[in-house]
Amino acid sequence: MKNLLMTTAFAIALTGPAFAAGSHSGGHDDDHADKHAEMMAVGKPGTAADVTRTIAVTMRETEDGDMIFEPDSFAFEQGETIRFEVTNKGELEHEFVIDNAEGNAKHKEMMAKMDMEHDDPNSVRLEGGQSGEVIWTFANAGTFEFACLIPGHYESGMYGPIEVSAKAEAETEAAEVVYTKGTVKKVDTKGGKVTIDHGPLVNLDMPAMTMVFRADETMIGKLSAGQSIEFVAEPVKGKLTVVELK
Ligand SMILES: [Cu+2]
Predict the structure, then answer these.
(1) What is the CATH number of domain 172-245?
(2) Ligand 1 centroid to 93 CA: how many Å?
(3) Engineering a disulfide at 227: which of 8, 12, 155, 184 sits with its beta carbon 3.0 to 4.6 angstroms away?
(4) 153: CA distance to ligand 1 center in Å?
(5) Would you say the pTM of this structure is higher than 0.85?
(6) What is the pLDDT along the chain (246 residues), one digit of tens a residue?
C-alpha cells in the first residue's frame, strides 16, 4: 500500500513539471490551463467564439504541374483567432497544416516514410472537392508556416509563410490616456488654434514648453485665456491637436 501511494505521488510529481515545461513556449498566463498541453510555438487551437477573421483558403493543382495554396502567405497579429475555410479545388488529396518550419519539416520526413493521416487541431486533410476548417489562435509572434505534407506536395509548391506580428505596444498605451497640465495663453477662435503653456507631453515624448495647438470648434469653445487645463494632444493630419480636455 505504501508503495502504491509513493508511486502515485511520484507520478504526480513527474507530471506536474513535465506538463508545465511543455506548455510554456510563449510564457503565457494560465488562463487556459486545459489547453496548455496543446500549445505549440505557432499557437493553440481556437474556439469559434473567439474568431476575429475568416479566411478562405484554396488548395489545388495547376496546369503546369505545381500544387498551390491560395493565398500563398498570411500575416496576422499576435492574439488573433483565425477560421481557415479550406477548400480542395484540386483532384488529388491535400492537407492544410500549420506549424513552424521545423515542425513541418519533421512531419514531412515522417510522412515520406509512411503516409500518416493527421487529425490534429492544427490541420485538415481533404479529398478533391471537399471543404473543411481549422480554427487557430496565433498566440505567439514569429514566422510560421502552412503546408501540405503529403509526400511530394511541399516540393511542388504547397507551403507558405505565416507572419505573426507582436501585439503593438502603442495599443496598450493608448488605452490609458495621459493628460498633461497646462495653462491657456491665447485662443485664436478663427484660426482654430490655441497656445498652451504645458507640462511634458508624455505620449509625444515632448518636454514642457509653450506651444500652439490646433483645436476644433467644439474644443475651442471650451477654452479661454488664463484657464488651467488638463489635456491630451495628438498629431492629427500632421498638426498637433488638442483631442481631449478635462
Ligand atoms: Cu497536397
Answers:
(1) 2.40.50.320
(2) 6
(3) 184
(4) 5
(5) no
(6) 444 444 444 444 444 333 333 333 344 444 444 444 468 999 999 999 999 999 999 999 999 999 999 999 999 999 999 999 999 999 999 999 999 999 999 999 988 888 777 778 999 999 999 999 999 999 999 999 999 999 999 999 999 999 999 987 655 555 667 889 999 999 999 999 999 999 988 888 888 989 999 999 999 999 999 999 999 998 888 889 999 998
Determine the distance separating the centroid of ligand 1 and the alpha carbon of 60, expressed in angstroms: 8
Where are the chain's structural domains?
42-167, 172-245
* One-letter identity of residue 192: G
Q: What is the DSSP letter of 36?
A: G
- Specify the CATH number of the domain 42-167: 2.60.40.420
Q: Calculate how far, in angstroms, residue 23's C-alpha sits from the geometric centre of ligand 1.
A: 30
